[in-house]
Amino acid sequence: MKQMLLPVVAALEEIQSWNCTDSSSNAFLLLSGIRQSSFIISLLCAEKLLSYTLPISKILQLSDLDISEALNNVDGVVFVLREIRSNVENEFKIIFDEANEIANALELTITMPRLTKNQTKRCNVPAENEEEYYRRAIFIPWLDYFINNISDRFLKHKCIIKSFKCLLPTGNSPNQTEKSQYLKLLEFYKNDIPENGVNAAVAEFDLWYQKFQCPNHSLPHNAIDALNLCNDTLFETIFTLLKIFSTLPVSTSTTERSFSTLRRIKTYLRNTMSQNRLNGLAMLHIHREIDVQTSEVLSVLGKKGPRRLNFII
């Protein structure tokens, strides 16, 4: 992002000199915002934090990623962000020095706003210098918000999600930890699994592990592999839990990819579209097996009131 800042400023300065009033005034407003010290600091803070989430944003778009693997990746990112939080002064000093370099290139000076004792309408963080002010006013609150949101989104059910790992046999007899995790799953999903009793479910778990102690059985590496190797009649409870494990959604990234079908429904040249129309077109695109009768569509349009076009029904 920061690499594009100087070219953007140069382009806006050029547009500002145009004779077009609208373009020059908009360029002036954008330049005024970009030249603010808070904007430069915020831009560098965003680049710093988002650089850690960029890898997991790509991983989360994989169609074959199970939630346990996603949780491990996110856990690592949160750990690194908390390390940054514990060493926030040194981390922000690097950002602030870089902000000074950008400000010098733009012939600006990093300054902090005027502070008063009774200020209530804007951020009034007490600070002795510019670096301390922006560290307290921008970087620390944003970093804390970043960590809390990632934790709430992915690590809320960390304990129960990690318990699913017990469904992947290791080639040995299940240990006490794996049995304890399995019991947690039985309790949490008691309304979804067959009612065969706890003893029958535990016996099924032991048999599931025993199956993979034979040399001719390859160990499953993920939930999909385990589900394909599981007999739904012999291991009824295990099979149900594996189905849950395989279908737990990691995120909505899959439906929001750049090659989404939305661009085939709503073109770039169309500026506005009501929500009802967009939903209707999406349903038509998904359910292609439904035969839409043209006469019925015209009948509905004709009954809605007078139109410029005369529909012959």
UniProtKB/TrEMBL annotation:
Alphabetical list of SUPFAM superfamilies matching this protein: Ribonuclease H-like (SSF53098)
Domain HAT C-terminal dimerisation intervals: 230-289
Molecular-function annotations in GO: protein dimerization activity
Superkingdom per UniProt: Eukaryota
UniProt cross-references to InterPro entries, sorted A to Z: HATC_C_dom, IFN-induced_PKR_regulator, RNaseH-like_sf
PANTHER family associated with the record: 52 KDA REPRESSOR OF THE INHIBITOR OF THE PROTEIN KINASE-LIKE PROTEIN-RELATED, DUF4371 DOMAIN-CONTAINING PROTEIN
Protein name: HAT C-terminal dimerisation domain-containing protein
Species for this entry: Macrosiphum euphorbiae
